[in-house]
């Protein structure tokens, strides 16, 4: 069950979006993962059937890049270091690449559950 | 005293029963006479052939000119077949299956060398739903990457595992007979390198090339003409009228030759000659196939046919003759399976059987039997909905008309012993296509059994 979010509502209103975007960017930078060269979607926990399947559906190059970022971040974490500033993840690079696949898989599962719980009404 | 209401009720019932009987009678009579052949029409640019026996179920099929013959890269026809009824822009594959299960329908996709068939069998009143579904599969399938990797590849591997040596022999015979086009293998074997050609993008490109109105025919068995013209027009609107990409449709040429494949497991041998095509259905070939036969119709007896006598001389061997008819060529085959030694003997006997037809040692009675058998083969094939459907579709997409049963039967009846002799002689004088799969130490070469390759 995903947490409640106001994001879809905010995205719909351009004026609200332009007001909150700098705040969101400040928060993401403060979270610290960008300084390790990660993207937000790299932080999604892998210990989940849906996420595992979504990872399988990633294109091969995306999968390789993801593993590279995670290994680099782990190494930096061990050494208590940050990347040089020019290698930090840029705002425009920090796009959701895995979340759409997870949403798609969740929609599939929801549809399957709905069909499984279907009750048939005859119209005669 | 009998009350008036009782009397009138009884008479009403009787009247109703009479009407019922009349209705039923009319239904049966119509099926036997007029509606045996498919009637071709054109609804909103789509070629449609239909027949209606007023039964409770309908078989609706889209026959597409997209069989293995037309595929630009190996395996694409198979990929397209497996992508049928998968996710579309409007609904998921799961929903398609569940909805048609709720309606009691069956969905099926299969391919022949020339045609790809998407078929739905369902109750008569569900025609709009399944017409919409078939049109949706043609125009809105998404060809997603994850479905290709998660579902389609594994199904193809499973089907490849089921390919037997008899299928390989038949494929090899087609291959030496026609080289490319019709010579393409019907299902790629596990040894065929298709992985570099077959992926969701190449399948989508092939679908774009073949799924258009110029290239498809809708065949309906058991649907009313009015229902078809009402529903095909709106639902098939999204199917493009034609495609910019050209199909590989070079005319077939017969080559002939021999191929031998060493393989463990069962043994199989195919002896093939140029046969009769769909359009110019040579009646002599059909009668010759009836005469050669192979499968007995009577229990505990080899029957009259020449090949079943040949098989009786080689215990364990199973022999039968078939004519594979395509739009511009045909292949008359004798397929032999069984233990290697028995196949060797049966192959020799089969060629002797054809030679005996050339010598004219076929009795008049056998000729009558063969004509009757050929007539039965024709009529039962056109009646059995699956075969009839595909034949009608194959004729339509290649530009001909569906099989006219009455005329073809007349042609069969006019075959004489001389015509048959000439046809058999032409077979032996021309080049044969011979394929042997299995234990090559025992299986004979074409020359050993007296054939020219």
Which sheet architecture does the biggest sheet of chain A show? none
- Main-sheet strand order of chain B equals 1-2-6-3-5-4
Structural class of chain B: alpha+beta
Task: Summarize model confidence as the mean pLDDT of chain A.
Answer: 92
Q: Helix content range of the residues of chain A, please?
A: 55-70%
Taking all Cα atoms into account, the compactness measure Rg of chain B is 25 Å
CATH topological fold name of the domain at 37-87 in chain A: Cytochrome Bc1 Complex, Chain F
The CATH superfamily of the largest domain in chain B bears the name: Metalloenzyme, LuxS/M16 peptidase-like
Tell me which protein chains meet in the greatest interface and how many residues each side has: A-B, 9 and 8 residues
How many domains of chain B? The number is: 2
Helical amount of chain B: 40-55%
CATH superfamily of the domain at 37-87 in chain A: Cytochrome b-c1 complex subunit 7
Our Rg estimate of chain A from Cα atoms comes to: 19 Å
Low-confidence parts of chain A: none
Assembly form of the protein: heterodimer
Please give the alpha-carbon distance between the first and last residues of chain A.
39 Å
Membrane topology (chain A): Peripheral membrane protein
Protein name (chain A): Cytochrome b-c1 complex subunit 7
GO cellular component, one term (chain A): respiratory chain complex III
Subcellular location (chain A): Mitochondrion inner membrane
Describe this structure in words.
Chain A: InterPro entries: QCR7, QCR7_sf. Chain A: This is Cytochrome b-c1 complex subunit 7. The complex is a heterodimer of chains A (124) and B (453). With 124 residues, chain A is mostly helical. Chain A has a domain at 37-87: Orthogonal Bundle (Cytochrome Bc1 Complex, Chain F), CATH 1.10.1090.10. Chain A has helices at residues 7-12, 14-31, 49-56, 60-79, 99-116. In chain A, helix 3 (49-56) packs across helix 5. Chain A is flat, with a radius of gyration of 19 Å. Chain A starts with 6 loop residues before the first helix and ends in an 8-residue tail after the last helix. In chain A, 6% of the residues are buried. The model of chain A has no long low-confidence stretch (mean pLDDT 92). Chain B is an alpha+beta fold and 453 residues long. In chain B, a hairpin with a 4-residue loop joins strand 9 (318-325) and strand 10. Chains A and B meet through helix 5 of A and helix 3 and helix 5 of B.
């Amino acid at each position: 069950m995903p947490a409640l979010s106001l994001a879809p509502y905010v995205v719909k209103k351009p004026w609200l979006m332009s007001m909150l975007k700098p705040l969101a960017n400040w928060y993401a930078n403060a979270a610290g993962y960008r300084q390790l060269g990660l993207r937000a979607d790299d932080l999604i926990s892998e210990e989940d059937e849906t996420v595992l399947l979504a990872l399988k559906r990633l294109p091969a190059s995306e999968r390789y890049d993801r593993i590279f970022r995670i290994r680099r971040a782990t190494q930096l974490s061990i050494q208590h270091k940050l990347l040089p500033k020019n290698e930090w993840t840029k705002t425009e690079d920090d796009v959701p690449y895995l979340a759409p696949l997870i949403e798609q898989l969740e929609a599939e599962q929801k549809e399957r559950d709905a069909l499984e719980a279907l009750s048939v009404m005859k119209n005669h | 005293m009998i009350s008036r209401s009782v009397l009138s009720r009884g008479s009403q019932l009787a009247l109703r029963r009479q009407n019922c009987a009349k209705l039923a009678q009319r239904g049966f009579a119509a099926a036997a006479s007029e509606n045996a052949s498919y009637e071709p029409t054109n609804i909103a640019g789509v070629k449609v052939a239909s027949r209606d026996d007023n039964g409770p179920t309908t078989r609706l099929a889209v026959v597409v000119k997209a069989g293995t013959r037309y595929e630009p890269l190996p395996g694409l026809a198979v990929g397209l077949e497996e992508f049928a009824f998968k996710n579309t822009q409007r609904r998921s594959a799961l929903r398609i299956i569940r909805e048609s299960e709720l309606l009691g329908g069956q969905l099926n996709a299969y391919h022949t060398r020339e045609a790809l068939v998407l078929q739905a069998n369902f109750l008569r009143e569900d025609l709009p739903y399944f017409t919409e579904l078939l049109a949706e599969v043609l125009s809105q399938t998404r060809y997603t990457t994850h479905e290709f990797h998660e579902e389609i590849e594994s199904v193809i591997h499973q089907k490849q595992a089921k390919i037997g040596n008899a299928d390989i022999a038949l494929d090899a015979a087609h291959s030496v007979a026609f080289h490319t086009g019709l010579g393409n293998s019907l299902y790629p074997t596990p040894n065929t390198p298709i992985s570099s050609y077959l992926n969701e993008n190449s399948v989508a490109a092939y679908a774009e090339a073949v799924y258009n109105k110029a290239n498809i025919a809708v065949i309906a068995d058991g649907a009313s003409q009015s229902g078809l013209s009402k529903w095909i027009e709106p639902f098939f609107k999204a199917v493009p009228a034609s495609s910019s990409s050209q199909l590989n449709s070079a005319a077939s040429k017969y080559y002939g030759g021999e191929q031998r494949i060493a393989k463990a497991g069962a043994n199989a041998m195919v002896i093939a000659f140029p046969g009769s095509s769909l359009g110019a259905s040579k009646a002599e070939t059909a009668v010759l196939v009836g005469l050669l036969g192979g499968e007995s119709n009577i229990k505990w007896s080899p029957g009259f046919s020449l090949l079943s006598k040949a098989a009786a001389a080689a215990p364990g061997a199973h022999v039968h003759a078939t004519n594979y008819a395509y739009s511009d060529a045909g292949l008359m085959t004798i397929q032999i399976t069984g233990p290697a030694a028995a196949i060797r003997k049966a192959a020799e006997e089969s060629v002797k059987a054809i030679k005996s037809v050339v010598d004219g040692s076929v009795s008049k009675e056998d000729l009558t039997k063969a004509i009757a058998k050929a007539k039965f083969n024709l009529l039962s094939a056109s009646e059995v909905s699956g075969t009839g459907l595909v034949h009608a579709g194959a004729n339509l997409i290649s530009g001909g008309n569906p099989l006219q049963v009455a005329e073809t039967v007349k042609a069969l009846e006019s075959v004489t012993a001389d015509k048959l002799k000439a046809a058999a002689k032409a077979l032996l004088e021309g080049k044969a296509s011979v394929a042997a799969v299995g234990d090559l130490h025992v299986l004979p070469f074409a020359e050993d059994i007296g054939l020219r390759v």
